[in-house]
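COURSE: Structural Biology Practicum
ASSIGNMENT: Worksheet 4, Part C
STUDENT ID: 0417
INSTRUCTIONS: Below are two proteins. For each, the amino acid sequence is given first, followed by its structure token string. Answer the questions at the end about the second protein only.

PROTEIN I
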Amino acid sequence: MNKLKFTLLVVLILISGSLLRSQTAAKDSGKVEIVQDAKVKELLSNHAEINAKAPIKGYRIKIHFGSDKNKAKEIKADFLAKYPNVPAYEKYDQPNFNIRVGDFRTKLEAYKFLKQVQADFPSSFLVQDEIEMPKLD
């Protein structure tokens, strides 16, 4: 009986050693194969497309609002002459024409620019708005 146990133990050790060696060889190959359903790729693509269309919440500076359309256009042109690198947006909310400027992702960025603009446009103030994605440098 002891001889049978010894033989089984030897066989078990040999089998486990060969299994360990094969796992080590597989780890050393450095290749990983990902198998996934085609639906996963389609869902990720749909998710990215939906997020690209979603509005981005941020801040703008409202430099003018009033019922005179020509005055609003003058103020917008004046702003663009002084700050050519900052976008300006004209929006009509009955009965007022609004001029909002900038695309700021954080309130701090918008506040810093507000302090700059207030010298030229003293009635300007900070508003939360849907913004365009700011261009990266």
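PROTEIN II
(use this one for the questions)
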Amino acid sequence: MMKIGRVELITLIFVFLMILTGMVLFAIDRSLFRDYVHEDGIIEWLTVAALVCGMIICITRTIRLRNKKPLFFLSGTVFFTLLFIFGAGEEVSWGQRIFNLDTPELFQKYNAQKETNIHNFVVYGVKINKLVFSKILGIVAVIYTVLIPFILYLFPICTEKKRA
């Protein structure tokens, strides 16, 4: 049986409690629930914190394991670093509300919330958020959980450690 570390256990309990809190608030008082999940609320900032932590973990692992892991592993870790940076930036609209910046004209025209981010774009009636998170993210999840493990099984050379 796999042991779970203290940090992982605390993280799982915290996430469970946050979800439970949301479910209870939704069931008993929708206005409290809306306050809980609203723009710039606690849930959004916890999401940003989680994305920044993921970024820090990936950067640390890339540096620490650069001479120990294969290029394939390191490339994946760098990719996830960039993905976490992008996600955190999008969540805070690239600092727009933090630094009280005006929304550029392009974003005023095409962004559903008139913010400086890509995930709220609406192009030809298609919401980018829906496209990315319902279709593209599903495809990426299948690639990550099915295709990549299959490739690694067929070509174990990709997972061999570098020789020092």
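ANSWER KEY EXCERPT:
Q1: The chain has one domain: 39-159.
Q2: The longest strand covers residues 122-123.
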